[in-house]
Specification:
- With 69 residues, the chain is mainly β.
- The protein has one domain.
- The chain is 0% helix and 48% strand.
- The protein is built from no helices and six strands.
- A four-stranded antiparallel sheet has the order 3-2-5-6, with no helix packed on it.
- Strand 2 and strand 3 form a beta hairpin.
- It is globular, with a radius of gyration of 12 Å.
- The N and C termini lie close together (11 Å).
- The mean pLDDT is 90.
Length: 69
Amino acid sequence: MTVRGNAREGAFVGCLNERTEMGVLVRSDVMTGDFELRIAAEPDDTLSVWQFEGTDPGGMQTTLVVPSP
């Protein structure tokens, strides 16, 4: 599954599949904050997405549910 969004410029963005306990970490664009990541997921999986800089989580956590095809 592809997850796209916007975070603070240059922030790290984490995405965790709650079912598999596998995650992905990417860095948002340093100019725009845009990010894109791919994570293994099946319909109805819950994904938690958050941003952070250094040790400061500082951003909101979002929960997504993978839609059925």
